[in-house]
Amino acid sequence: MKQILFIIALIASVTLAGCSDFLEEDVRGKENLDTYFQTEEEAISFVNGCYNALTFNGWWQINTVWLLSDMCSDDKWMGNTSQGSDYTALAHYQSNGQSNGLISNFWQYRYKGILKCNIAIDRIDKSTISNETIKNRLIAEAKFLRAYFYFELVRNFGGVPKITGFLMPEEITGITRSTASEIYEFIEEDLKDAAAILPQRSQYAGSDMGRATRGAALGMLGKVYLYQEKWESARDVLGSVITEGEHDLLPNFGDVWSVDHNNSVEGVFEVQFMYDGVYALGGSLTVVTGARNGPGDGWSWGQPTSDLENAFIAAGDDERLKWTIIKSGCTEIAGEDNFDVFVENSKKMASYQTYIDKYGWDEDCYIIDPKDHKSARINRKFFVPYDKRPEVYNIDKIPLNHRILRYADVLLMYAEACNELNDDANARKYLNEVRARVGLGEITSGGNDLRKAIRTERRLELALENNRLYDIRRWTDDNGKKVICNLMGENGTFVKYNTNQATADIYEWENQGEPSNKGATFNENRDLLFPIPLYEITMSNGTITQNPGWN
User: Fold this and answer.
1) Torsion angle, CA of 78/83/87/93, rounded to 10 degrees?
2) For the chain, where do the domains classified as CATH 1.25.40.390 start and end?
3) CATH class belonging to 2-63+101-247
4) What is the pTM of this model?
């Protein structure tokens, strides 16, 4: 599967390039498509390019919105207080996010990925490739990826334009948004088709590890059902992932995001990354979320909140806490055998002794400079230990696969569906399986108390993995409002905690380079979705309409 990463130039020659929006995209090399897909190798290479569209091997096309989603929740701050950012308008729920470059890039690059998949599905189906097994598998892989790209769009923007073929600009003129239900139905169809054809993980050769599998298609379909509250359908397909036995939990939680455990038995679907000293074949989030001080400086975007840390503490969950959050003043980093390197680097700070004296830290601690980092915390999940870092430690170089869907997520989604269907015995069974790995006691409650326990478990297990915002948007609280509406807003519990000096975390309170009132201007009639990028509305002459509250 690593060879997928090398197929970039080919796609540029037979499909689109450039940086305009999908409505006006100049599709280049269309004539080449009539003579392409003549061999199995050509078809495989093109589908490899569809996998490349997961991130386009850059940090700003897709990764920025993956970070933004958690920044919009109670789990992350923007974090970097040394620079201005496009994140502010959306992460702090201001009303001026329509022209935000982050979501505009995300929109257009998700549609570029969809276009690649549309071409693959159409042209491979019409090709003369004789190996029907390979032919059908490649179409199924493209359908899986197209479904995932549409899922990313619908859960961020609601209903979006549905494009299912290789269309020229004049064929798209006047297009309107399909409803969210219509998009979800289309996603379901693609994932069902994919699951019926794709091999199991164990049926792939080692060189193909990382390709979409039947388990990945079923797991993603289960998540799509869950987001629509189709509880029976979610339970059935997620149950299939469990009973088919292709995946399991890793024994140690610390291995889940380890660079040594890419494509582990717990990984249901991962973005494949590798190190190359010249080419951009690696991931970026390790650097983007790393501390601004330390060996191989990071950019400090997307820092864990003290509110998230407190959730681990309240649950007595020391194990997952140490593998999720690295905190300033710490005297060890989980899994780091070269901690002294980080300490020595910290001691080079001009204010090192000042911080030691002010906060009462140990003389030999690691400092994440509080003046540059909103929470003086960073994400341990994306952290790569010092002796495992590549020679060129930079964005697009990190060989840590990005986990999109894990088996623990499947188990917790299954538990949630069972609880909603009043099958609390099975809900407890799979919830407790996840808890047992980190030494937490069994949950014995049922009904609404069990529902709350499952929700808490999702927060702790999947923290900082691009799930929290979508969970709190979809979950309904006891008062009938979406959970996010009780966390954010002027009277939201997250906002009140952070804006009260008596309860706020000291590092977050003292560093107002990012204001502590994040979420105070949250509007439940506007902020359950991101705005449609203004550029798309303008270029469509208004046939693509804006989401409510953003006008």
Assistant:
1) 70
2) 2-63+101-247
3) mainly alpha
4) 0.94
